[in-house]
Amino acid sequence: MGLTALAGSRERGEADRARAVLLTLAGWTSPRIAEAFGVRDDTVRLWRSDFMRGGVAALRATVAPGPAPVKSEAALRVVMPLLEAPVADRPNWTIPRLRAEIEAQAGVRISRAQLSKALRKKTSAGGGRDTR
After folding, report:
1. What is the pTM of this model?
2. Which of 54, 69, 56 is nearest to 21 (CA)?
């Protein structure tokens, strides 16, 4: 994927970085680009520097490293088989009921918000509907 394609990315940060480099190539100055994107001049210079060192790949969004989502992973190991059972054969699962089942089976307490987020991520990755 080239610079122009990245400028059309759905990820706003990487699209802005690519557009800033394209504007640089069109002759725009750092202060002018910074004003257009609502960032500091130093930020624009950093984007340019990243591009010079690593090309288009350096402008892509990255996931910050951090600890593994232990609770979410444990919750999904319990919940997914429950939710994948045929509808006629399964109880009506609500978030509170799922939380209780997760605690009973895995010994993990997970907040309502964290469970909802894990379920949304899991279903959106698989192309399914959001779970509320």
Report:
1. 0.51
2. 56
Q: Give CA separation, 62 vs 13, 14, 58, 68, in Å.
A: 10, 9, 9, 16
Length of the chain: 132
Please give the sequence-ordered ranges of beta strands (E in DSSP) within the chain, or none if there are none. Answer: none
What would the mean pLDDT of 98-126 be, rounded to a whole number? 88
CA distance 89 to 76: 20
d(C-alpha 43, C-alpha 34), whole Å: 8
> Could you give the CA distance from residue 75 to residue 93 in angstroms, rounded to a whole number?
14
**Structure confidence by residue, pLDDT tens digits, 4-14:** 999 998 889 99
| Nearest of 84, 91, 95, 96 to residue 123 by alpha carbon | 84
